[in-house]
Amino acid sequence: MLMKKKFFTVLKNDKKTIARIGKLSTDHGDIDTPFFSVVGTSATVRTLSSEEILETDTQLVLANTYHLHLRPNEKVIKKLGGLSKFMNLNLPTMTDSGGFQAMSLGAGREHGIGKIGFFPNGKKLENTEDRSLVNITESGIEFRSHHDGSRHFFSPEISMQIQSDLGADIIFAFDECTSPLHNFEYTKKSMERTHRWAVRSLESYNKKQKIYGIIQGGVFKDLRLISAKFIDKLNFDGIAIGGALGDTKDSKNEITEYIVSNLSNKKPRHMLGIGDVDDIFEAVERGIDSLDCVWFTRLARRNMYFIYPEDGGNKINRWRKNIRSVKLILENPLSEYCKCNICSNYSATYIKHLVVANEMLGMRLITYHNIFFVNNLMKQIRESIQNSKFLELKSYWYGK
Ligand SMILES: [Zn+2]
C-alpha cells in the first residue's frame, strides 16, 4: 500500500516570532514555505514563458477560476490534462474559487477600492447583494462576464466542479470577499453565508485536491474570531485569510496577528491578495506560510523594478525604482546584487531603451527580474528562520 504523503510539515519555528519554515507536498512536487504564489490569472504569468517561470525559482502559480471558466473553459483544460499540463509547466498550481469576483466586479469596481481601502467620511456600505454586475444569494453568485456581459452563476458546488476540472494541486473553498466599505451587519451576514458555503465546498469537492477554507469577517475583530474558529475546526487542508483587513498597514498586521493566534498550528496558512515587500515580512512574522499578489508583475508593466538592500532598497523607497526616471550608469544591470538571468546578461540602459521605445521586451525583462526578486526574498526569509535570524534580516531590509 502506498503511504499517503503528509501535506504540510513544519520544519522549524522561529524563536522570537511565530514565523516558521515548512514543506508542502503536492503531486507536482514539494514546496518550501514560506513561499510566494506567483499570479498567473489566465494560466499565464503575463509576458513570461513557462520555461522562464521555472528559471525564476517560482514554486507555485496561482490561476483564476473565474477567468479560466469564461475563457477557454475548464473542460478544455481538463481535456488537455489539467492546469500544469495545459501551461506546459511542471510546477504545483493553485486556483482561487471565483468568489473574489463578487467584490472585484461588484462593490469593488463601483467604488474604486481594493482590499486596503479608505473610508470616505467614515461612511460604510450597507448592502451589496444586488448590484449591476453581481447578484448574491444563499445559493451562490450570479455575475456578468466582463468580456461580453453574458450571465453566469457560481455556487460552492459549481466552483468545486470547475476547480476539479482545472485540476490544480490546491484549491479554495467558495467565499464572498467583502469590501472595507461594508458595515458590520453586512459583513456578518456575508461571513455567515461564507461559512455555510465552506461546508458545502467541503461536501462537494473531489477529495483528491488539497482544499483551503477562507476566513472572512472584514475589519471586525469579533467577526474574525468567529470565522477563524469556524474555518479552523472544519476538515480543510489549509487555512486562507481573505477579505479586507483594515484601512492601514498597522490594522492589517493587528488583525492578521489576532486571526493567527486563534488558529491551530498544524495547517498551512495562506494570505490572499497581499504582498509588497514589507507586507511579506509582516505576514511571515505573524505565522503566514504563503501569499499571493499581482504586485510584482503588475508593477513590472508600469516600468517599476525591484532592488535589494545592497542596491539601496529600503522601506522609504519601497525597494523599487522607475526605469524611466533613473539615471543609469552605462553598463550596470537593474541590480548589481541580483543573480537572475536578466541582471547577469542585460544592461539597465538597454532595458530603459526598450521601455522608452515601448518595446514589449522591456516589460518582459523587468517581469522576469521582479519575479526572481520576490522568490529570492522568500528564500532569504526561509534561510533567516533556519538560522534564527529572521528579525535581523527584516531590520536589514527595512534599512534600520
Ligand atoms: Zn535581476
TrEMBL record:
GO terms for biological process: tRNA wobble guanine modification. Residues 18-398 form the tRNA-guanine(15) transglycosylase-like domain. It comes from Berkelbacteria bacterium GW2011_GWA2_35_9. InterPro entries: ArchSynthase1/Queuine_TRR, TGT, TGT-like_sf, tRNA_ribo_trans-like. One of its GO terms (molecular function) is tRNA-guanosine(34) queuine transglycosylase activity. PANTHER family: QUEUINE TRNA-RIBOSYLTRANSFERASE (PTHR46499:SF1). The keyword tRNA processing applies. It holds the Pfam family TGT. SUPFAM superfamilies: tRNA-guanine transglycosylase. NCBIfam families: Q_tRNA_tgt (TIGR00430), tgt_general (TIGR00449). One of its GO terms (cellular component) is cytoplasm. Gene3D superfamilies: Queuine tRNA-ribosyltransferase-like. Keywords: Glycosyltransferase, Transferase, tRNA processing. This is tRNA-guanine(15) transglycosylase-like domain-containing protein.
